[in-house]
Design goal:
Blueprint: E1 5-7, H1 9-18, E2 22-25, H2 29-32, E3 41-42, E4 60-64, H3 69-79, E5 85-89, H4 92-98
Parallel strand pairs: 1-5, 2-3, 2-4, 4-5
Domain Rhodanese: 17-105
Pfam families: Rhodanese
GO molecular function: thiosulfate-cyanide sulfurtransferase activity
């Protein structure tokens, strides 16, 4: 079993400025409707096992949720499936917002 790493909001913010990062939000629909970290892709936690993550081989992938628990589950699963740098955002979008970083409201159109 391969390991994922936790990343804090400050380190993620810096990483986003220096390289391509695939952000994956694993929250529920109602949570995502409140906003996402800019550039994130939405995949519910329950859908993670059915997604082919092989295109992300050798990439940097960061999972996040509300507080970091569900995203840790997703990160552990995906880290075991592909050879990539897989991270879990410690504290989730709550920590991101508390650090003063913004999020984007999803368009309803």
């Amino acid at each position: 079993m391969k390991k994922f790493q936790d990343i804090d909001s400050t380190a993620l913010h810096a990483l986003l400025d220096t390289q391509k990062v695939y952000l994956i939000d694993v929250r529920n629909n109602d949570e995502v409707a409140q906003g996402v970290i800019p550039g994130a892709t939405f995949i519910t936690l329950s859908s993670i096992p059915s997604v082919d993550f092989s295109p992300l081989e050798n990439e940097t992938v960061v999972f996040y949720c509300h507080a970091g628990v569900r995203s840790a589950q997703a990160a552990a699963f995906v880290a075991d499936q592909i050879d990539a740098s897989v991270y879990n955002l410690r504290g989730g979008i709550l920590a991101w917002a508390n650090a003063g970083y913004g999020f984007t409201q999803l368009s309803t159109t």
